[in-house]
Amino acid sequence: MTATITSLTGMRFAKGHGTGNDFVLIADPGGMRELASEQIAALCDRRRGIGGDGLIRAVRSRNIADGTAVLEENPAAEWFMDYYNADGSLSEMCGNGVRVFVHFLVTQGLVALEAGEKLAIGTRGGIKYVARLGEGYQVDMGPWGFIFPEESGQGSDSLVEASGLEVARPALSITLGNPHTVVALADLAELATVNLTLTPVVTPLPLHGTNVEFAVPAEPLVKDDVGHISMRVHERGVGETLSCGTGACAAAAATRFWAGSGAPDLWAVALPGGVLGVRFQPGPDGREHVHLSGPAVMVAEGVLA
Predict the structure, then answer these.
(1) Residues annotated catalytic, as ranges
(2) What pTM was computed for the model?
(3) For 252, which DSSP code?
(4) What is the Cα–Cα distance from 184 to 207, expressed in whole angstroms?
């Protein structure tokens, strides 16, 4: 292990994933263990560390600066998901990550949550409400929106250049508390040609960077009142991942917008790591909310040597 991990000797950790999107998880209720970006990157290193697409620190909201606003909005949001990308950079939210985070809290005995019950979780992307299902969890991701609303009406607001695609492709920029740029491709063969070992170039680039989704609509698009798409994703600060929860929501939102009136509210999004469910429905604030459902699995626990 690298020196930065050695400096964390004795720290307990867990490893979990949601449809292959994997995370290192640390319980730090008192907010006493802030990790440097170099330490986070070392822990997420797949050859010299534990390995993961990101790191999640479980902190009580009252013990982290970003938790102040969370508690003002809802005092019941006891826990804050302090989330970082694999390169150590800060991130607002992660749809797969928040499911795994809640499962971590449950399996560690930090919260009790029975099937059908709901938990409020603080994130930098706002409070997320997570319900435990018979299998897995469902997250109210909150309202979605356009990053560039003045340009989005025509169906695209940016261009994306990616290795494997001969020309730049039009794209639509979607926010779910974190930024996404969605590109529609013609078929699965074209999806397979995209080389996501290289970072796609997005013009214009959202202020804090963006995750880029390449989506292919099924043929037919809608079956039994459910929309179907396949996608791959390049996550900022990480690279290609097997799954991205907010990315699946963004791809479904963009495809539904492109499909026009009559498009369904329920979507099945196939990613390399598995299938996620996305549902659009009115929220308590009068805006349209996105609900993400899928599994969460804990695979290991340990202590850094």
Answers:
(1) 94, 244
(2) 0.91
(3) H
(4) 22
